[in-house]
Amino acid sequence: MASLRRFLQRIVSAVRHDRAEDDLAREVESHLALLEEQFRNDGMTPDAARLAARRAFGGVEQAKELQRDARAFRWIADLRQDLTYGARSFARSPGFTTAAIVTLALGIGAATTIFGALYSIGLRPLPYADPDRIVRVFEYLPPREAGGAPRRGHPFAPSQLDAVRRASTLSHIGLEIPRLMLMRAGETPARVTGSRMSAAIFPLIGAQPILGRGLQEEDEQKDSDNAVVISHALWQQQFAGREDAIGATLTLDDRPHTIVGVMPAGFQFPPGSSGDIWTPLVPAGTAPTFRLSFYARLRDGVPLAAAQQEIAAIYDAVRSTNPSNRPRLEMVPAKDVLIEPFKPAITVLAVAVILVLLIACVNVANLVLARSIVRQYEMSLRSALGASRARLFRQHLAEGVLLAMLSGAGGMIITLISMSWMRTFGNAGPRRDMLPGLNIPRAAEIHVDATIAGFAIAISLVAGLAFGVIAGARQPALLTPGLRREGRRWPLFGARGIQHALVIAEVAMAVVLFIGSALMVRSFIHLATIDTGFTARERMTFQVTLPPTRTPAEVARFGEELVARIESMPSARAAAYAESLPMVPVGRLALLSATPSFPKPDFAAPPRLDVRIVSHRYVEVMGIRIVEGRSLRETDGAGRPRALLINEALRRERFGGTSAVGQRLFVGGGPTFDPPGRTGPLEPWEIVGVVADVRQRSVIDPAIPQIFMDQRQVPGPTGSSALNLVVHLEGDGTALLSSLRSMVAQMDPQSFIDNVAPLENLVSNSYARPRLYAQLLAAYAAVAIGLVAVGIYGVIAFGVVQRTKEIGIRMALGARRQQVRALVVRDSALVTAIGLIIGIGGAAWSSRLFEGLLFGITPLDRTTYAAVAAAFAGIAVVAAFIPARRASAVDPVAALRAE
Amino acid sequence: MSSERVELLQGTLDLIILRALSTMGPQHAYGLAARLAQVSDHPLSLNQGTLYPALVRLEQKGWIKGAWGKTETNREAKFYALTKAGEKALTKEAEKWRRLAGLVDKLLLES
Asked: The domain containing residue A718 runs over which residues?
């Protein structure tokens, strides 16, 4: 008890140093005064009394020193002193301090930002109760192309989920389907996103509304899904946080919905999303027949593997498979799914930031080393005055840590700025509702927490201690000789060897980084210049949403009229509409057959067909080339013979590349092509033309077989009352855009326009991630190259200063200025060459990290390697140029006289 | 070897201070030093400044408590008083000391 108390007191005293010191001084003074008084009372003269008091007391400073040792931990006081001294010494050399702190702050900031972002997306627990027990299940189907990635799918249709619900290893299961609805409130309608989901999701994730109730099973029993739970944000926006929101009506997709609950601020489901509405998944009528994503909670104590095994058995039972022909099933924690899109890049980004950090550290280490050589004299002096070697070493450590902590603070500022940027732009993109864009999951949650701050502090501390060791390690041996040589002469003792080794390491790391970034940038350029098969220039796109009650024929009629009106305007050359646009990763799948009967779908060889429901001028407006036959025509309308366009990929696959025009095909799959009320045999479609392949889902995915059909000829409902318009503009199209809204409102007051964006933006959005990676790596490489250039310059320039005398002697003995210059450049060329060779080796060795990240370029691309080598040769010469000139300008007489 | 001697000396000084405060009531450092000189055979063998580490140690252990006050001659001084914990510690430490002293005595007599 007493010793613990004392231990704590000793720490407190060290911190409250000044107060304890004052108290002690006062006490000793009063003690001396009392002694003196005593001696005077004994009859001494005042002077004698004072001396006697001193004698009786003993050494005042010694006593104080002993008391200090007993009072506080000595090392804390020493540390204070070291830090104060270090701070003063940094203040004396502001150039060194600024350079070191800025450099290191860049490194720490870059590393912390990337770590923080990856942590926020993939490692921080989801904001649910016991989140590690929440899992998802996927099946992996064979890839479409040989060598492609396996395709992930959902293993169960809703009707099969009852079997899963009975699984003994799972306590809850719930379905979720993303939902996009039109909300009419006040003047302007707005799109709101959210989910249709099982009521079971609420207990599954342990979510509690702050007002009203969550979705309940009774909501699922009704025949309409008119109950809705809303987000805190929507509640604030529409109801200003009033409690009477519960029971109020919200018009979604032109149907009244009753608000039953309000979720707390920050609530999200599915994980990482930012939806505002949650409606029940009503089984009757509206429930989809396709397979769905579901969430499950493991029963307490059940390991993941056991649950996965049970799910596989259930899969075999409901899908009539067995372990030998069952596709791979995988149960994963819900959290792990979010980081997946970034997986190929994680290692590359992590390696890149570590390299930036290391390069920054090496640069600072070189600065510290140079400074320690310059400070030789000061250290010798302190040693001569009685500082122990350990004490001097500790001084270096304290300074290193102080430097790194200041840099860490700077790095934290960089991190905070870049994180706020990520929060703002993580979700950005002209078509948030449909495009992945950057779409960083949980972007809103990216912030600095204790873990991320701890990471920054830890790397700062390690770096700081390393600097301390570097600066302090070579001190002791040199102390006395350093003092004996007068003034500023410093012994070399291999310091330049260490500096050179550091620069070589730095060059090697920068080469690896530079090659990596050059590959990424070239791959990005490849993507940006890829021929998509259509023309994006001068094309404006927008989306018109009609009330869901409109029939397909009405939607088509509306579309035709809108196109006609737009085309009548001078700022539009042509216009078309389509069910969905390119670069939007949604599409319609269908089955194709030469006969009216369709084979049963086989998941081992899934159909590869993309269906585009368009208006007749779509192909022309998009600038898609027709390679055979004709395009769709105005006359291919309702009731006319069914006309079909196919692409070259389909012609190759089905007709071996020979002419396909005139061939007939049956299109099936779902109510769109085979409406439930149909009587008589299925009607065929006649191929009237073949169009060039286009990149449809993204610029990265190569074309797959595709068919185009006129919306007016589609027999069944398409399930959507939204049209995507594309307009080939004449000029900048401002006039068109300004009158668009009123034109559409005039045609149908209940219609709604949004997602206005140039087609070019949609295209560039589809490679937003590769672009981000290329930008990040290019930025890192730029920082690294800057640091390396400064690093080489610093070491070479420092070497020139050190060798001034030697250069003076050489010149006095007849060396020409050119030879002196060559001497200096050779130094720089040598370290760069060695670093370059190591770096190229390292880059080649790490090339497999780029798997899945590069398009149109191999990771061992020779041109890139050669260009990087040439660039570094240039850097070596440029970095050595100024020191070389300075060296050749040395005046031999002055140099020899100076020392 | 030498560290053990310091340890013993330290403990002894602590015990003496506790005992002095227990018999005399609150005292300042000078008063304690005077008391020590009084009971010791060699009044000059102890520098009065050496009391300070012991005082701060005891205070941090919570056995004594210092407070500023006035002497009879109206000078300010820091007076140390024994705390409750200090009284208990004194009994315990004194007991320990007696046992140790008894043991040493016994050993010395045997040889």
From this structure: 547-750
State both tokens at A547.
């009330």
Is A756 inside a domain boundary? no
Task: Note the pLDDT tens digit of each residue in A626-655.
Answer: 999 999 999 998 889 999 999 999 999 889
**Residue A578 resides in a domain:** yes
Residue of chain A whose alpha carbon sits nearest to that of B55: A67
User: Could A58 and B44 be called an inter-chain contact, meaning their C-beta atoms sit closer than 8 Å?
Assistant: no
Q: Examine the domain organization and report whether A487 and A379 are in the same domain.
A: yes
DSSP string, A512-540: HHHHHHHHHHHHHHHHHT---SS--TTEE
A51 shares its domain with A162: no
**B30/A71 Cβ within 8 A:** no
Q: How far apart are CA A610 and CA A578, in angstroms?
A: 13
User: CA A655 to CA A647: how far, in whole Å?
Assistant: 11
Q: Where are the domains of chain B?
A: 2-110
A39 reaches B (C-beta below 8 A):
no
pLDDT of residue B71: 86
Can you give A399-455 as a three-state secondary structure string?
HHHHHHHHHHHHHHHHHHHHHHHHHHHCCCCCCCCCCCCCCCCCHHHCCCCHHHHHH
Q: Of the candidates B53, B71, B73, which has its C-beta nearest A70's C-beta?
A: B53
Domain boundary among A750, A782, A804: A750
What's the mean per-residue pLDDT of chain B? 81
Nearest CA in chain B to A31: B30
The pLDDT assigned to A436 comes to 45
- Taking CB atoms within 8 Å and a gap of at least 24, the contacts of B59-63 are B60/A5, B60/A6, B60/A9, B60/A10, B60/A13, B60/A71, B61/A2, B61/A3, B61/A5, B61/A6, B61/B85, B61/B89, B62/A2, B62/A5, B62/B86, B63/A2, B63/B18, B63/B89, B63/B90
DSSP-derived pairing of the beta strands A190-197 and A211-212: unpaired
pLDDT in tens, A171-201: 999 888 888 888 887 767 788 888 888 899 9
A251 and A379 housed in the same domain: no
Say whether A763 sits in a helix, a strand or coil: helix
Which tokens go with A676? Answer: 């439930």
Q: How confident is the model at residue A409 (pLDDT cuts 50, 70, 90)?
A: very high
Q: Distance between CA atoms of A704 and A708, rounded to whole angstroms?
A: 13
- Interface residue A466 vs chain B (CB under 8 A): no
Together in a domain, A576 and A429: no
Integer Cα distance of B79 and A370 in angstroms = 55
- What pLDDT is recorded for position A429? 43
Tokens of A28: 């000793």
Q: Do residue A214 and residue A299 come from a single domain?
A: yes
Residues ≥6 apart with Cβ < 8 Å to A108: A357, A360, A407, A408, A410, A411, A412, A414, A456, A459, A460, A463
User: How much is the pTM?
Assistant: 0.76
Query: How does pLDDT run across A45-58, given as a tens digit for each residue?
Result: 989 998 888 888 88
Q: What is the ipTM score, two decimals? A: 0.85
- Fold (topology level) of B2-110: Arc Repressor Mutant, subunit A (1.10.10)
Examine the domain organization and report whether A372 and A513 are in the same domain.
yes
Q: Does B30 touch chain A (CB under 8 A)?
A: yes
- CB atoms B48 and A35 under 8 Å: yes
The rounded distance, in Å, linking the Cα atoms of A179 and A215 is 16
